[in-house]
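Here is my example:
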Amino acid sequence: MANADKRVVKKAGVDRRISVKRIYEKALRADGTRVLVDRLWPRGVNKDRAALHAWLRDLAPSDTLRQWFHAHPEAWMAFRKRYLKELARPESADELGELYRLAGKQKKLTLLFASKNERYNNAVVLKDLLEGMRKPPTGTGPGAVRAGRERRAERMPS
């Protein structure tokens, strides 16, 4: 990770506050920027009550992975590892870049999820990623997102 990229992650994790919260909880001013990171819209929540700034549905785990984890909640570390591999795919690059941008720009960022499991869910993994966990997966930092965009731009026919 380049030094500039480390500063963005450090700034997002140390100087900025990132939290996770169930979308069913009441929206508060203290939440700051509210970002839903689930693929499906949560049941029983209308858009006004959600008070979202962004919905990054492509950052959610695949349906296959989500269903597997629901059946095997004890396999948190395996889920986490598989989810990080999914985030390293090119299809996640744009929304992952948007998440890094929001984290670097906002004083307070709240990642919203619908799961009943408040301790182990995809929003927790994203929070760890933004806060610069010990071993970020290859290809998921802000520099990798930028490089992916540049590679796609180079492939575009003129």
Remarks:
- The mean pLDDT is 81.
- Residues 3-153 form one domain.
